[in-house]
Specification:
There is one protein chain. By secondary structure, the chain is an alpha+beta fold. It has two domains: 36-226 and 350-432, Aminopeptidase (3-Layer(aba) Sandwich), CATH 3.40.630.10; 227-348, 2-Layer Sandwich (Alpha-Beta Plaits). The chain is built from twelve helices and 19 strands. The chain has helices at 5-30, 36-46, 49-60, 62-73, 83-95, 151-170, 194-199, 251-269, 307-330, 358-369, 384-388, 418-432, and strands spanning 100-103, 109-113, 120-126, 140-142, 145-147, 178-184, 209-213, 220-225, 227-236, 240-241, 276-285, 291-292, 295-304, 339-348, 351-352, 375-379, 393-396, 401-403, 411-413. Strand 18 and strand 19 form a beta hairpin. 42% of the residues are buried.
Length: 434
């Protein structure tokens, strides 16, 4: 059958129209929905003269906020060594008028502003950065851009928290809920969320709603927690001379076998199903090329959106290590057998809070007001802990623009950075009531 050119064009146009219509429908189905009730509540809030004054105050507060950002950033604060930065942050909380401030047993700095009801709403940023204590964290300028390790992640978050506190204190609207302003410890790396884990333990404080400031742009709201497991796996043996003690079991050989077995099995398992990842980030051990090592170790990171799959990855790793240990011990010719230690160095639970949760809807309503397209995302942040416990919690962005996180060339530019403070403040007021 012959198709004329004009008929082909009509057929193509019809096919494209059907495809594009289906695409738009799919996009609409995936679009984050903001309940009209929350839009209405928020419009009622921002219509108040006092709120308009507060938003103007935040914009005028940017210069002080940036000075504090620089001052705090120049205090080194790797995980487990946040004390000096914590003391400086506590002093600022007291300066700006919290009712009481303290440092808990984990090292978290907490400021309380008392309300009139028995609810507690927290806004948090983490004190620690990924950089060792001897890293040069002085802030350098290139035009208006600030360069320094940790300037964005998450020192800028601390500056946002302080600016929100100043705004609350000068506002004519008084929150009904109690407010916590927190600088938490141990968010990064081997800190393993130690600060927030303590806060939500039996020894911690009562928290009914949690807002973390730790991320980039304003459009991304994290309401889903990415779970992870991290291990340090160490094979241990007697060690000895590569020639004189040949025949003893070699920990490096066992480690190599374990890595191969783990990667093959993990690769097969992660090809299908909800996203799951694995990574061997560090390995080490040994003293010289002609010595059988005393120990050989690796650090393994495994993540998944599904806790069941994360548990399966745990099983895969343990099976690989056990098989490698047995194989190497079976071929020894002399000396004692190898031993292995699996030390858990990280455990971040996963979880997910629904889109219709009031805290999430309040955040979406604020973004709608700012005319910013929102997205609900999954991440590994301080909010992992409350999310996994079913406690309302989100992580929001620090604002401005930046890049190079976790690198020595990290940078941040105050491009309408005040909007992040306005965003955080408005969510806090919506959650706290007034």
């Amino acid at each position: 059958m012959m198709i004329l050119k004009r008929d082909f064009l009509k057929l193509f146009a019809l096919s494209f129209f059907v495809f594009y219509s289906q695409f738009l429908v799919a996009q609409n189905l995936n679009k984050v929905q903001v309940d009209a009730k929350y839009k209405k509540n928020f419009k009622s809030l921002v219509s108040k003269k006092s709120i308009k004054a507060d938003l103007e105050f935040i914009q005028s507060d940017s210069e002080l906020s940036n000075k504090e950002l620089i001052a705090l950033n120049e205090i080194p604060a790797p995980p487990f060594e946040e004390d000096n930065r914590g003391l400086a942050f506590k002093k600022l909380l007291e300066t700006y008028g919290v009712d009481t401030a303290w440092i808990d047993a984990a090292g978290n700095v907490i400021g309380l502003l008392k309300g009139t009801d028995d609810r507690y709403v927290a806004i948090d940023a983490h004190l620690d950065t990924v950089f060792p204590i001897d890293t040069d964290v002085s802030v350098q300028f290139l035009g208006d851009t600030l360069y320094a390790p940790g300037i964005g992640d998450d020192t800028r978050g601390l500056a946002v928290v302080l600016s929100v506190l100043r705004t609350v204190k000068q506002s004519k609207l008084k929150p009904t809920s109690n407010l916590y302003f927190i600088g938490s410890v141990g968010e990064e790396g081997l800190g393993d969320l130690s600060g927030v884990k303590y806060i939500f333990s039996n020894q911690g404080i009562k928290v009914d709603s949690w807002i973390s400031v730790d991320g980039g742009g304003l459009g991304r709201i994290t309401n889903k927690a990415l779970g992870s497991l991290r291990y340090r796996v160490t094979f241990k043996g007697s060690g000895g001379h590569s020639w004189g003690n040949f025949g003893i079991v070699n920990p490096h050989h066992a480690l190599g076998a374990a890595i191969q077995k783990f990667v093959i099995a993990a690769d097969e398992y992660t090809k299908e199903g909800p996203k799951t990842s694995y990574n061997i980030g560090r390995i080490g051990g040994g003293t010289s090329v002609n010595s059988v090592p005393f120990a050989s170790w690796m650090e393994v990171d495994m993540r998944s959106v599904d806790p069941i799959r994360l548990n399966k990855m745990d099983e895969i790793l343990r099976a690989a290590v056990t098989e490698a240990l047995k194989e190497q011990n079976d071929i020894k010719r002399s000396g004692r057998e190898l031993e292995v230690e699996l030390l858990e160095i990280g455990n971040r639970p996963s979880g997910e809070l629904p889109e219709n949760l009031p805290l999430v809807q309040n955040a979406l309503a604020v973004l709608d007001y700012f005319d910013i397209d929102p997205s609900l995302s999954r991440g590994s942040t301080n909010a992992n802990i409350p999310i996994s416990m079913g406690i309302p919690a989100i992580t929001i962005g620090r604002g401005g623009v930046g890049g190079g996180a976790h690198s020595l060339n990290e940078w941040w530019l105050d491009k309408e950075g005040y909007k992040a403070v306005q965003f955080a403040y408005l969510i806090l007021m919506m959650e706290a009531g007034f």
